[in-house]
Amino acid sequence: MTAPGARTGRSSLLQHLLPGYPGREHWRLVPATGQHYLDVGAGEPLLFLHGNPTWSYAWRRLLPALAPRARCLAPDLPGLGLSQHLALPSDPAAFLQAQLDHLDALHRHLVRHEGAPERGWTLAVHDWGGPLGTAWLRRHPGVVSRLVVLNTIAFPWPDGYRLPFYLRWIRDHRSVAAAVDATNAFARATFRAGVTRPLRPDERRAYLLPHARRGNRRAITRFVRAIPDGTRADVWRLLEPADEARDDLRDMPVFIGWGMRDPVFTPLVLAEWIRRHPRAAVHRYHRAGHLVMEDAADELGAHIAQFLRRWP
User: Fold this and answer.
1) Looking at residues 167-183, what average pLDDT do you find?
2) What's 64's domain CATH number?
3) Is 50 exceeded by the pLDDT of residue 5?
4) At residue 25, does pLDDT exceed 70?
């Protein structure tokens, strides 16, 4: 049994290694799954879903602007961040279904045990959080009332889009995926090339910390290998169900905040979001890259807060 002082010492050290991240009093675990999440602020639930290879650390700079008016709930997707690094399925459809199952468990836990309302949530999504989050909300009509979209996709790639070659290499070649996994190259490259405002060295270290051990990186390459293409109809059906099985999002208030210097989610993807949601509030951040919440944190936080005030 570990002495209380030792636990406190490790907690203080970990907090020191995560500059800007909320304190341990805001850390929570879902007992059934071991999924870690942040719980900051008060008000209507605002659920943040990050992508790959980020984790809830990505939202730290938005919380000061949003926590005063919303209960900000930021989980780490299974296998990423401070959530348990489980032996998740390698099959893409099964892997993504496991992610959706954990979202179900998180929602049940928050409603049954943490005082969250069953409905009236706002969902904020980035990267893989987009397809996972919209697939989840379509399976639970009425839970989500507002949608915040940040450099992501939730529909088949638009005509003319081509996935960057390095993502295709990792997705389509096991040997390349194995090399990336061994070196953590995908995460290291993301936290340098994914921003236009370079992260401080301690911020990059914080992002990389949960995946320093090779055994904790499996989900990173599995997310890349799960990226759908034209032949993976089973994955597309999971992420975008048939019309009769999905909730209609056209009347939902939507905010779109887009880093315009993103090499993956290009202006072509943004144009498809706008075509599908012509009444959305759209903000383009011309000096921001893929990690728009890093490059445009102050503007983005203010614009999302304004959106929440407009659609209470």
Assistant:
1) 94
2) 3.40.50.1820
3) no
4) yes
The answer to the question of residue 12 being in a domain is no
User: In a 3-state reduction of DSSP, which class is residue 33?
Assistant: coil
**Dist. CA 132–CA 47, nearest whole Å:** 12
Number of structural domains found in the chain:
1
Q: What are phi and psi of 52, to 5 degrees?
A: -120, 130
Residue 114 lies in a domain: yes
Residue type, 269: V
Strand bridging mode 144-152 / 70-75: unpaired
CB 256 within 8 A of CB 149: yes
**Cis bond upstream, residue 53 (ω within 30):** yes
Distance, in Å, from the CA atom of 297 to the CA atom of 39, rounded to the nearest integer, reads 19
Instruction: Identify which of 60, 303, 105 has the alpha carbon closest to the alpha carbon of residue 203.
Output: 60
Q: Is the pLDDT of residue 86 over 90?
A: no
Alpha-carbon gap, residue 240 to 135, rounded angstroms: 6
- The CA dihedral of 138, 143, 146, 152, to the nearest 10 degrees, is -40
Residue type, 133: G
Does a structural domain hold residue 132?
yes
**Structure tokens, 77:** 């997707």
Task: Report the sign of the C-alpha dihedral through residues 136, 219, 156, 189, in that order.
Answer: positive
Which residues is 40 bridged to in the sheet?
A: 72
Please report, as a single letter, which amino acid is at residue 153: I
